[in-house]
Amino acid sequence: MHRFQYYIDGEFLEGEARFQSIDPATGDVWADMPEAREADVDRAVDAAERALYDGPWAKMTATQRGKLLYRLADLVAANAQKLAELETRDTGKIIRETSAQIVYVADYYRYYAGIADKIEGSYLPIDKQDMDVWLRREPVGVVAMVVPWNSQLFLSAVKIGPALAAGCTTVVKASEDGPAPLLEFARLVHEAGFPAGVVNIITGFGPSCGAALGRHPKVAHIAFTGGPETARHVIRNSAENLASTSLELGGKSPFIVFADADLESAANAQVAGIFAATGQSCVAGSRLIVEAGVKDAFLSILKRKAEAIRIGSPLDMATEVGPLATKRQQDHVAALVEKSIESGARLVTGGQRPEGAGYYFPPTILDCDGVSSPSLAEEFFGPVLSVVSFETEAEALRLANDTRYGLASGVFTQNLTRAHRLMKGIRAGVVWVNTYRAVSPIAPFGGFGLSGHGREGGLAAALDYTRTKTIWLRTSDDPIPDPFVMR
Ligand code: NAD
Prior knowledge:
The chain has helices spanning about 40-55, 55-60, 60-80, 80-90, 95-115, 150-165, 180-190, 205-215, 230-240, 265-275, 295-310, 325-340, 395-400, 415-425, 460-465; strands spanning about 1-5, 5-10, 10-15, 15-25, 30-35, 120-125, 130-140, 140-145, 170-175, 200-205, 220-225, 245-250, 255, 285-290, 345-350, 365, 385-390, 410, 430-435, 450-455, 465-475. The chain contains 15 helices and 21 strands. Helix 1 packs parallel to helix 8 (about 205-215) and helix 4 (about 80-90) runs antiparallel to helix 7. It binds nicotinamide-adenine-dinucleotide. The site of nicotinamide-adenine-dinucleotide has 29 residues, from helix 8 and helix 9.
């Protein structure tokens, strides 16, 4: 059995308690994990606060911080295979995806390494004589980071990279459902030479570890990725310490296909948009909104492609769809499919969990035209596509915006003016036109409504990990006059 430790104040520790991690491809226990509870959360946050104000990190120049981040990026790239395999083993995300994504994770660290010494303050043209006033940008403080199981190395990189570039210190809570890749990543943080306490990586359960971290009095900001219901707990917890929050939550993203689109190309994007990562992707294009005239043709292409998908062991390079991460997730997907069929949705393909070991669920398409199916409103976080059709552009837009989420969206059309109208009209943080699921360290990402608030990626994300300090300096040597007049 593999045994993992977590990382607090530069040391690898066994944890207050232990729990077992399941291989989702088999349903068997494969690793033994350390579980942080309140006392370990305290140790980690205390270490992060000491590192923030007293340790070598506090004295480093921004350029030196950047160099450490470059070293970390190189170590991630050099250890890509091992990290990818651990992520696949512990979460079931297929090796084809984890091994491609980890290369990009290194690029995110590289991008923020370059940003570290480009975070500038400003000088204010103040409306008073003999005064110099400027803004310093300082790290916001100790940042608590809480991530879900899917793509943990990526979802933590988009937080750790900008936070360290800004000079913050952090306690990262890996998901209890598959913490192995982040616990291994801690070894690279150590090897890169970050001073003790700058990055602490723990894992544990939400209500004990996550809640203790989120309400800790020394935490200044909580960067959270997960579901909306948990985000409500995070906000309630932050009522204790009044920490600021950034929330990257779920989605029910519309994928609009017009009759003039290249249907084959749109179908490939749709298949990637909903079945990649076994649908466990916040940006999953889970609501297909297709022009009525091409609905049958488009569905038959999708059905053919969905049924040709290779389902198998996530560690096999040939596999295209692996298991869901947990039994809980498999049960949720199966139950929501059943509820949707009961409400009148027509099963186009998939829909039944297979016999045998592992938490598999096949690529599934539900035709929801003319019915009020829960699958159109609720997030599956699984490989299930719900389909509706439209007659007019206005109807397409109305259907696209018929959601309380606002994360991602896709539009497939050859009509340029229409594409522009939809870009403006769709209420989502990201609009992809004739493409889907593209991300970059340079481009901000995030949503609104039930999809959360705050942006990850880009320069602005690093600025979000800073707070300004206003400095007033009187430049006159004359004595200060009458104290009862404000100047
Ligand atoms: P989740 O909300 O159940 O858990 C996320 C994390 O929160 C875990 O580490 C968990 O331990 C922790 N947690 C649970 N209870 C907590 C509490 N009371 N206080 C503090 N932390 C607590 O999410 P999940 O089910 O693991 O992941 C799926 C969700 O994540 C989906 O809704 C998905 O859309 C979302 N997601 C969003 C993005 C994005 O960037 N927008 C990316 C990936 C996943």
